[in-house]
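Possible regression after last week's pipeline update?

I re-ran a chain I had predicted before the update to compare outputs. Posting the input and the new output here so someone can diff against the archived version. Not blocking, just want to make sure nothing changed silently.
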Amino acid sequence: MLEPIARGRNRRSRIALIASAIVVSAALALTGCSAGSGSAAESSGTSAEAGAFPVTITSALGSVTIEKKPERVAVWGWGAQDVALALGVVPVAMPKMTYGGDADGVLPWDADAIEKLGGTTPELLTGADSDQVPFEQFVKAKPDVILAPLSGLSQKDYDTLSKIAPVVAYPKQIWGTSWQDQTAIVGKALGKQAEATALRKATEEKVAALGAKYPVLKGKTFLYAAANQPGQLNVYKATDTRVLLLNELGLTNSPSLKALDPKADGSFFYQLSYENLSKIDTDVLVMYFDKQAAVDAFTSDPLVAAMPTVAEGRFAPIVGESFVMASSAPSVLSIPWMLDRYVPKLAAAADKVE
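New output (post-update):
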């Protein structure tokens, strides 16, 4: 299973990529203009804004022009389905989330939104856990557009998917799109820019209100990490979406975040061995765990237990797969779902800073 925050990419060989492209081309020829699956909602159900189309969107992997309002929307990566659903659009296909999702692989806030919209569960795309794009499933879904602004698409993935439908990828780097930018990009692609702007502002106000409710957070330093491998922390960098969300609450990045980074590159995290835990200087330590037993196992390690943040109760773990996903891929749907329940715990840890 893909560690939800490591998001490591299993690179296919050149032969496998060429084979995928051949399969996609053949499938397109066979499906022709068939209607595709009827199990998912096939229409946005709401109108696009006047003059919204045609629209051109530029990404790090290429530019696409969407000529008219998409009726069949597919998504890939994290969070794009959240924005689409918040804008009243039930996708025809979206990733199956085995980490954090229900028995079907649907995240709780997405399930709630689909139910409120009176839609049916979209085609659930396999491969999200390993970042392997299921090209054949995309072909069968017959999308008018594929939205992937927060994803790990490679150029070859993008080029292959572009044979199926216009693809909207990330603006700069893989897994590096803020929730605000993702909201704007999806809104633009769906012809709902004004609605997307309103959603962004409402969500920002929600976050700001929580920050104001817990002023103890303002100015406190934090480090955001995960214990995905024995003896190693994954430390998330200042550009990561998780870190940026906590910045919005008033927290500031620990000076250790940059000081302990072994190399300045384009990745969103770096690894730190337990032997270097004593070098972390921060007011609050934030980490995620799939269950409480994992928290207990982590804090039982002598090197971890000796950390001042842990020993003094300045440790604010995010516990539970759905909560991990909500904080790791913040969106206009997941932020309201999780922050009200997590921020009080974060504030309690910050309140212990002397």
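Follow-up from reviewer: compared with the archived run. DSSP finds 14 helices and 13 strands in the chain. Marking as no regression found.
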